[in-house]
Design a protein that fits this description.
Blueprint lengths: L5 E6 L11 H4 L4 H15 L2 E6 L3 H10 L6 E5 L8 H10 L2 E6 L21 E4 L4 H18 L8
Parallel strand pairs: 1-2, 1-3, 3-4, 4-5
Bound molecules: 1,3,4-trihydroxy-5-OXO-cyclohexanecarboxylic acid.
1,3,4-trihydroxy-5-OXO-cyclohexanecarboxylic acid (DQA) binds next to loops.
Length: 158
Amino acid sequence: MRKRIRILVLNGPNLQLLGTREPDVYGRVTLADIEASLQQTANELGIIVECRQSNHEGQLVDWIGEAVGAFDGLVINAGAYTHTSLALRDAIAGTGLSACEVHLSNIMARETFRHESRLAGVCVGMVAGFGAASYSWGLQALVHWLKSREYGEILKQS
Ligand code: DQA
């Protein structure tokens, strides 16, 4: 039987505060709610997800490094590290993990310092602006991409 796809879901700094953190921007959904809904999406897709959160950049870098061989892909909301962290960018590039960047808010519609993502250039794509649903759609998009790649359906980009 075919091995089930395994996806690591990483959340960065301050995302443990979801539910009470700036609800006008991020809504009232908690991180536990998001993780439960991702488990449900994973069941529907027949895949395995593992969710972790840390406020520490080095911990996130360690988890990405350790994910090689253990996971097939990465869904990541790096929080504010999105805009600053070359170490996270290098970890994704260095491992070669297929990654989807997600954000609850539409970072391009917010303050200019949020417009640049250090991670975007090493991710397959990004889902941002759909609140908690960004995670579920990001997961589905990444799984679709991994399956398409496996079957050679991705067109070669020049
Ligand atoms: C965020 C957007 C970031 O700019 C911010 O620092 C966060 C949350 C989002 O999910 O919308 O912590 O990643």
